[in-house]
């Protein structure tokens, strides 16, 4: 619906008299023309006043000049003024448009009794410029954006009261008004603010870069508290929430409460506030970026992730930190999430082509990097420590991270283990290991990881082994295994929890001294 029709006339008169702003009047008349909402507020109010003047003189049309679509004409006729309900359920007389200049005076109320000023001052160019200044000073790289807005929960209560008022008025004319037919406040605000912000920032409006405005209205913040009495099961304490009166909880309660109960607690029409809403926060947030590559670990005293036990840090650094600290600095991100294809123990080196890893960078300010800049960043990481090296560092998609994790247990991994035996061995004693192919193991969850892994028996396969004799008590074993195989436990047996194992195959006690992922 692009303009008002005859049936909207009494609604316009009623809402204007109760202190509702022109844009909210358009919303409750279900006007869906976005350009109409973008008309300057003063022009909208002036046109409505002109209409009222013309209406008193017997004319029934007022023109709102809009660039696109063409001029909207609102046709209105006289109607009998009607009573309304107040918060005690009694009828409250609303001043008539025809009562001298009453409507003119009421229409100049500074703060709208429905939107609390959201569709008034906060749609003006000064506030748009304030938001733009905040965005530009935040230091983000972006080529487009998306706009979001957070509104005080009590606005839903006031909207319900105004809807009941309009619904009653339309009922007198044999008409109905569904709650879902009203243009939502948040939607109307975006219609007005989004194009202005896009023009001021000079970028289109669609991307992972989000600009959001959080509004509050301290004067009326207790208005929704009666719902906790009427619908107590809708309000439950939640973690990380300062108040139980969240927008969703209030909406849920409003859907549940009966109309007659609502009118007992809340005035209809809603009272006019003294103050405008306040913009508590203007926030910027970029969508996450993902950096992937492979790492080699050359230290036998470096965990993959920070090693903290009972709140106490055991080692000063980790693979994760040595890589991420440089990415965080260059991308100017708030935080990160590290993931990899498998993990190695603190005393295990990772050699060969390296282990695939990915880092999610949360809310990065910088998002554009050339291939040469990524190579330079990789070199910076490699020059910072002799404990790790990275390769193939690149920007990837979220979907690529999922593929890194796919089929982890079907992958084949190659290891080199330095093994000690309690009894003396000769080269011939270990030669038979080279002939074993596709050896099936049953591995109970190792004792060393039982505190963080569920107890289970996992079937794993040793594809091939190749032994290399060193001396009477030492030999090196090269293994190709199914990913997820516990190599240390395959060597020493973990008190019989891994069967078979090198100790049982050699018929002697065996232990592992060094392990490398090749």
Automatic annotation (TrEMBL):
| GO term, biological process aspect, one | tRNA pseudouridine synthesis
- What is a GO molecular function of this protein? tRNA pseudouridine(55) synthase activity
Which reaction is the catalytic activity of this chain? uridine(54) in tRNA = pseudouridine(54) in tRNA; uridine(55) in tRNA = pseudouridine(55) in tRNA
Presence of the UniProt keyword Coiled coil in the record? yes
Identify the EC number(s). Answer: 5.4.99.25
What is the top EC class of this enzyme, as a single word? isomerase
Transmembrane stretches, start-end? none
The UniProt record lists the Pus10 N-terminal eukaryotes domain at 112-284
Its cellular-component GO annotations read: mitochondrion; nucleus
Cell compartment(s), UniProt? Cytoplasm; Mitochondrion; Nucleus
Ranges for domain Pus10-like C-terminal? 290-518
Task: Give the record's keywords alphabetically.
Answer: Coiled coil, Cytoplasm, Isomerase, Metal-binding, Mitochondrion, Nucleus, tRNA processing, Zinc
Q: Please tell me whether the keyword Lyase is annotated for this protein.
A: no
Task: Tell me which family the UniProt entry assigns to this protein.
Answer: Belongs to the pseudouridine synthase Pus10 family.
Q: Mind telling me which NCBIfam families this protein's record contains?
A: pseudo_Pus10arc
Query: What is the protein's name according to its record?
Result: tRNA pseudouridine synthase Pus10
